[in-house]
Specification:
With 211 residues, this protein is α/β, with parallel strands linked by helices. The chain has helices spanning 20-28, 53-64, 155-169, 184-187; strands spanning 13-19, 34-38, 43-48, 67-71, 76-80, 90-93, 96-105, 112-117, 133-134, 144-149, 173-180, 201-204, 209-210.
């Protein structure tokens, strides 16, 4: 789903007492993804800036509430009522956390971005005649992606945005997996109880994370 962070730009727009589903359709237009279930019924008034589809989805979530659910197989995005709670439960080694693993994902890693607007204009005129930007910090392999802009986008704007995007896409993505225990059965304390959908804190000094 993080490919939605690099699927072009969504124009700035003002939403007046809009439903979440309406804004989500704007975010996903032209990405190949569609809106799934929307059970959040709030209507909100807000203004968005020009941003990526994923950034707009996060903005919609912040405005309307709920949880975003991404289905990578069906390519749908749903916004459902928040199911969990944040009761302050924490896991760390020696107390509830028994195993941790960091997973490196290079699926969406690119080292070269070629910007083009709908008029066929690139960045050659402002980039020394070169039609792309590159970054081989993580790997020397050439992985190219075309970044499409709307008609009229200037070479300077495309160069700046492509460079900013490449700074993120030229690095792998990291996710974490943890094995934890429900200590509430041992301690009998409500503060240790948790359920699916809850927000919890994981502290792992070896992986240097506190999330």
């Amino acid at each position: 789903f993080y490919d939605l962070a690099y699927s072009g730009q969504v124009d700035a727009k003002e939403y007046l007492q809009a439903a979440a589903g309406t804004a989500m359709e704007d975010a996903l237009k032209g990405t190949g993804w569609t809106v799934g279930a929307v059970t959040v019924v709030t209507r909100r008034t807000y203004t968005t800036e020009s941003m990526s589809p994923l950034a707009l989805l996060r903005t919609i979530q912040a405005q309307h509430g709920g949880d975003l659910l991404f289905d990578g197989h069906k390519q749908t995005v749903s916004l459902v009522s928040r199911s969990g709670r944040d009761a302050g439960v924490a896991f760390l080694y020696g107390r509830g956390l028994s195993e941790s693993k960091r997973v490196v994902d290079t699926t969406s890693l690119v080292t070269r971005i070629i910007p083009r607007n709908a008029d066929g204009v690139g960045i050659e005129t402002v980039n020394g005649g070169v039609p792309w930007v590159e970054d081989y910090t993580y790997t020397g392999e050439v992985r190219s992606a075309v970044y499409n802009f709307q008609a009229g986008a200037s070479p300077f704007t495309m160069l700046a945005m492509a460079s900013a995007t490449l700074a993120n896409r030229s690095k792998p993505s990291y996710s974490y997996e943890f094995t934890v225990a429900d200590l509430s059965h041992i301690t009998g304390q409500p503060v240790d109880a948790f359920d699916v959908g809850d927000v919890v804190t994981v502290i792992d000094q070896e992986l240097d994370i506190r999330e």
